[in-house]
Amino acid sequence: MSENKLHATARALVQDGKGILAADESAPTIKKRFDIIKAESTEDNRRDYREMLFTTPNAPQYISGVILFDETIRQKAADGTPLVKVLESVGIIPGIKVDMGAKDLAGHPGEKVTEGLDGLRERFADYAKLGARFAKWRAVYQITDTLPSPACIAVNAHALARYAALAQEAGIVPIVEPEVLMDGSHTIERCDEVTETVLRSVYGELAIQNVSLEGSLLKPNMVLSGKDCAEQASVDEVARRTVRCLKRTVPSAVPGIVFLSGGQSDEQATLHLNAMNKLDEPRPWKLSFSYGRALQAAPLKAWGGKAANRKAGQDAFFERAKANGLATTGAYA
Ligand code: 13P
Questions:
Q1: Looking at CB atoms within 10 Å, which of 58, 114, 128, 303 has the fewest?
Q2: Where residue 173 sits, what CATH number does that domain have?
């Protein structure tokens, strides 16, 4: 695939008014979500739930792409149509999560390194055949007074860049996801400092490994107060600090930044994105969303594992998709 095609896909994912649905929960994670609504995590239930989201009427007005899990990209809708075709038929771009999860980093208690590089070239070839046009790899960083360590930052940046280069070789747009976790009692200043260090390291490594920035997207955390910090920053402060941090670290060749929600409430995630897009200052990249929990918490609850609640689930999903779609242009009220 030509470089221009990669660039076009990246830009299409962040076109005005649209963002990404992250529906790539691994088997253990989707089970945790289903446990909340007391639904059994069977292959059919996972298919029914995701098919419900993917076929929500008018959602493609606000959703440009969906990140799938390995099981889902191979799954068929109830009527036998592959779910990838279901997405393509409504103009949604299919994507795939390719990392194999964050594992304990040897010699560094409390820290993780994301695995999944072995055999990734072959897996990308397979996913490209199945219809994936973009991909995701998530690295995680825990904040404490002394973490993340330089080692954790270095190995995860290296792996993110190895993944991104392999994705582009296969004609697939890499979403590079370094997630500084909001767990902990740290201040917003500390999150700002760590996020800046992590992003500098990631973009340094992407440059070393010749990743085409125009054909990539960044999926970062927002700069937030730790979840257990006594003093919680205002929406305005989160918006200003996040954009400032990104301006200091993310090259202007990157077409878009799609935030993760990371455990924020769905309303907070929307308000923060909206406030960033309302800031009266120039920005080189689009600011959009690639939310999992912030898009799915409401529809999951409304669906509750029951076929009879399908429409209620879709209505709830549409409402979240619309709110976030509007927030990509600062038009959410
Ligand atoms: P959350 O929005 O729930 O953080 O999920 C996004 C995601 O894809 C995490 O990897």
A1: 58
A2: 3.20.20.70
DSSP per-residue codes, 147-197? -S-HHHHHHHHHHHHHHHHHHHHTT-EEEEEEEE---SS--HHHHHHHHHH
Residue nearest to atom 5 of ligand 1 (CA): 292
Question: Which candidate in 18, 219, 286, 322 is catalytic?
Answer: 219
Q: What's the total number of domains in the chain? A: 1
Q: Is 219 a catalytic residue?
A: yes
Q: Cα(26)–Cα(40) distance, rounded to whole angstroms?
A: 15
Q: Which domain holds residue 74?
A: 3-327
- Distance in Å, CA 292 to ligand 1 centroid: 4
DSSP strand pairing (19-22 vs 286-291) = parallel
| In-domain check, residue 333 | no
What is the best residue among 290, 300, 320, 324 to mutate for testing ligand 1's pocket, by most ligand atoms within 8 Å of CB?
290
Three-state SS at 330: coil
Instruction: Indicate whether 54 belongs to any domain.
Output: yes
> What pTM does this model have?
0.98
Does the C-beta of 62 come closer than 6 Å to ligand 1?
A: no
Phi, psi (rounded to 5 degrees) for 253: -70, -20
Would you write out the chain's pLDDT as a tens digit for each of its 333 residues?
A: 577 999 999 999 999 999 999 999 999 999 999 999 999 999 999 999 999 999 999 999 999 999 999 999 999 999 999 999 999 999 999 999 999 999 999 999 999 999 999 999 999 999 999 999 999 999 999 999 999 999 999 999 999 999 999 999 999 999 999 999 999 999 999 999 999 999 999 999 999 999 999 999 999 999 999 999 999 999 999 999 999 999 999 999 999 999 999 999 999 999 999 999 999 999 999 999 999 999 999 999 999 999 999 999 999 999 999 999 999 999 999
Q: Does 275 fall in a domain?
A: yes
Q: Is 260 in the pocket of ligand 1 (CB under 6 A)?
A: yes
